[in-house]
Design brief:
Number of strands: 6
Strand content: under 5%
Number of helices: 18
Bound molecules: arginine
Oligomer: single chain
Helix content: 55-70%
Largest sheet: 2 strands, antiparallel
Distance between the termini: 64 Å
Low-confidence stretches: 1-8
Mean pLDDT: 95
Shape: elongated
Strand order of the largest sheet: 1-2
Order of helices and strands: HHHHHHEEHEHEHHEHHEHHHHHH
Length: 469
């Protein structure tokens, strides 16, 4: 059906004798994706028509007809009865064509002093602004879940790792609050992206501005943007607001993925630090004993998808000369997918963190293994015997080797054995060799001591508005 039987259907069809081929239509149409911009498109058109009437570019009667026609369109879309038509390409032309059917001639005046190029990016900025706010709110929800769990585990001892080797004991509350800090910076990045996205391109028209006496401040204000964009070429062609948003989402998704990976690790049988409830686990089709942390694993994978969406958009934009090119149409599918994926990941992480059962006994047992208090012993030698730290490190290393050879903990060595390595050691050293004493001693600013964790929990509860619950 590549012949001229649909001539004139396209709004831009005036100079064309034949309709596009089906394949042309398939590659060109974006309506299946950009129909999500319908309410933003209507908001943009309302603001534009009001401004055209105010500036006496169209009549007040035409504006009234346009506004009531848009009421009907909005209602039809909300009720799922709007007749979307792929041959009309995109959401902008679908809405304009429907408006023409509903109100006739005044519909044709709406596009005065406007192009789809400024129209689409206005809609898109409005959408991204809303999506950034929603993503930020989701992250605040996850922070709240983490803070609540940290509050109950300010003094729960677990092994802290470097290189995934047992390093020093830490508290579970401290570990969870580390993610609260990361996520706070993620929210900051989303907020920064929203601030820069919040400029109004409407009125840039196709690329050069317009000869009509429009009032860009008026449309800008009506749509709640901070200011009209200063350069019309920039206004229609810039997509750094979407890129920055996807970059921020990608960093945030990286943090979700790291936390997800901890869940995978902690819920494995050799660790046994935590268990997921039935609602967050799946079974194996062959191994009846399995409880798999699928949601956490998928969060880990999806972080890579979001990073890929950022890279794809960057690739689409990086070699485009100014101003608009159709390549930019594909910005929306990538951006929508990234935000949708992120939303799902954030909700899954929140659900898991709210319900995961921690096993303090297993954590405490593991915290005492691997000579985790060796640093505490070395610090004691520095503090009590005034040894230089390097010498204390050497003495402790010798004691660790002795304990290791006998397959016992440092605390199981006798005082005599210790004094054989350094004569100044006294019985008091045994006080610093337990994981509990180790974490209690870490009271420096930002340290893992339970008192510090409780202070941090209190501060976060205040910041997140959790005090009354
Ligand atoms: N659907 C198009 C997009 O998303 C709208 C802009 C089309 N502009 C054009 N000059 N063909 O980018």
């Amino acid at each position: 059906m590549a012949t001229g039987d649909r001539k004139g259907q396209q709004i831009w069809g005036g100079r064309f004798a034949a309709s596009p081929s089906d394949i042309m239509e398939a590659i060109n149409a974006s309506i299946d994706t950009d129909r999500r911009l319908a309410q933003e498109d209507i908001a943009g058109s309302r603001a534009h028509a009001d401004m055209l009437a105010e500036m006496e570019i169209i009549s007040a009667e035409d504006n009234e007809a346009i506004q009531s026609g848009l009421d009907i369109v909005a209602e039809e879309i909300r009720n799922g009865v709007f007749p979307f038509d792929r041959s009309l390409e995109d959401i902008h032309m679908n809405i304009e064509a429907r408006l023409k059917t509903l109100i006739g001639e005044p519909a044709g005046r709406l596009h005065t002093a406007r192009s789809r190029n400024d129209q689409v990016v206005t809609d898109f900025r409005l959408w991204v602004r809303g999506a950034l706010a929603e993503a930020g709110a989701r992250l605040a929800g996850l922070q709240s879940a983490l803070v609540r769990r940290a509050e109950g585990h300010a003094g729960t001892v677990m092994p802290g790792f470097t290189h995934l080797q047992t390093a020093q004991p830490v508290t579970l509350g401290h570990h969870l609050l580390a993610y609260v800090e990361m996520i706070e910076r993620d929210r900051g990045r989303l907020g920064d992206a929203a601030m820069r996205a919040n400029e109004c391109p409407l009125g840039a028209a196709a690329l050069a501005g317009t000869g009509f006496a429009i009032d860009r401040d008026m449309t800008c204000e009506a749509l709640g943007f901070a200011r009209p964009m200063a350069n019309s070429l920039d206004a229609v062609s810039a997509r750094d607001f979407a890129l920055e948003s996807l970059a921020a989402l990608s960093v945030a998704a990286t943090h979700l993925s790291r936390l997800a990976d901890e869940i995978v690790l902690w819920t494995s049988a050799p660790f046994g630090f935590a268990s997921l409830g039935d609602e967050w686990s799946t079974g194996s089709s062959i191994m009846p004993q399995k409880r798999n942390p699928d949601a956490a694993e998928l969060v880990r994978a999806k972080a890579a998808l979001i990073a890929g969406q950022f890279a794809s958009l960057q690739g689409a934009v990086k070699a485009l000369p100014l101003a608009y090119a159709k390549d930019l149409q594909d910005d929306k599918a990538l951006t929508f997918a990234a935000f949708d994926t992120f939303d799902l990941c954030a909700r899954a992480m929140t659900g898991m963190m709210e319900t995961i059962a921690f096993h303090p006994d297993a954590m405490a047992h593991a915290a005492g293994q691997g000579f985790s208090t060796a640093t505490d012993l070395a610090d004691w030698l520095v503090r009590e015997l005034r040894l230089p730290f390097r010498e204390a490190h050497h003495v402790t290393g010798t004691l660790v080797a002795m304990a290791e050879a006998r397959s016992v903990d440092l605390a199981d060595l006798s005082l005599e054995e210790m004094q054989g390595v350094h004569a100044g050691i006294t019985r008091a050293v045994f006080n610093v060799l337990t994981p509990e004493r180790s974490v209690e001693s870490r009271t420096s600013l930002g340290g893992t001591a339970p008192v510090r964790v409780s202070e941090q929990v209190a501060q976060w509860k205040k910041r997140l508005g959790l005090e009354k619950t």
